[in-house]
Q: What sequence folds into this?
């Protein structure tokens, strides 16, 4: 049985990273082999260019940074696919949905943004962490990196809604991330536990008609 591919998406400061670590620990203790990915993966050569851009240490055209974010996923796509085929569950902190939502929020056309990620391994389930931009700001930390501005986050949230509307309830679920860590963890676990061991043998391709 192949591994499940679970993506966690959401606005900045929605608590994704904490919950992804928690989910990894729970899967491991339930005996499910699991590997965590995080995009952008700032450790690769491409990832270092992205990191420098996000920390405003370099400037890039919107199109150029968009393509680097996508290339950063493609450079790990084969590893993700092989892990899934070997039976390892892959949990991913952000994926192509962040890629499209953040770049389209800056004004690039949505379909242009989607094209470079078309054909990546498709998640079996995307768990979207929904939080109002006001609540995210109240958690602290906004403003340290590019994109951490309330108006942009509002537009990103609308664009995530557009992307979500293309998936059925089996493939995309929304979690209210404004609640306590324990409540959110409980709901994430409910979705993950229902999926692991029940995925179809084939890994689908994202955004391929
Ligand atoms: N981001 C993330 C993008 O703009 N495009 C992408 O493809 C991805 C994966 O990078 N504000 C943005 C969203 C975040 C920022 O992410 C860094 P994180 O999870 O804070 O490291």
A:
């Amino acid at each position: 049985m192949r591994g499940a591919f679970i993506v966690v998406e959401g606005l900045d400061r929605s608590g994704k990273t904490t919950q992804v670590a928690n989910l990894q620990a729970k899967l491991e203790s339930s005996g499910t082999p699991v590997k965590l990915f995080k995009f952008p993966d700032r450790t690769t050569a491409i990832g270092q260019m992205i990191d420098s851009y996000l920390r405003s240490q370099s400037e890039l055209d919107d199109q150029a940074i968009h393509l680097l974010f996508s290339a950063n996923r493609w450079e790990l796509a084969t590893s993700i696919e092989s892990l899934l085929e070997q039976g390892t569950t892959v949990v991913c902190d952000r994926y192509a949905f962040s890629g499209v939502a953040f770049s389209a929020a800056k004004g690039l056309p949505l379909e242009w943004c989607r094209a470079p990620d078309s054909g990546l391994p498709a998640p079996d389930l995307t768990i979207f962490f929904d939080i109002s931009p006001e609540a995210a700001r109240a958690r602290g930390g906004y403003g340290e990196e590019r994109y951490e501005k309330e108006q942009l986050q509002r537009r990103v949230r609308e664009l995530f809604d557009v992307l979500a509307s293309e998936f059925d309830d089996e493939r995309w679920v929304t979690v209210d991330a404004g609640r306590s860590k324990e409540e959110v963890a409980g709901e994430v676990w409910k979705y993950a536990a229902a999926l692991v061991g029940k995925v179809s043998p084939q890994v689908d391709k994202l955004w391929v008609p």
Observations:
- The longest strand covers residues 5-10.
- Strands lie at 5-10, 34-38, 89-93, 125-130, 172-176.
- Helices lie at 16-29, 45-54, 62-85, 96-105, 110-114, 133-138, 150-164, 181-195.
- The pocket of 3'-deoxy-3'-aminothymidine monophosphate is lined by residues 12, 39-40, 54, 69, 94, 98-99, 102, 147 (CB under 6 Å).
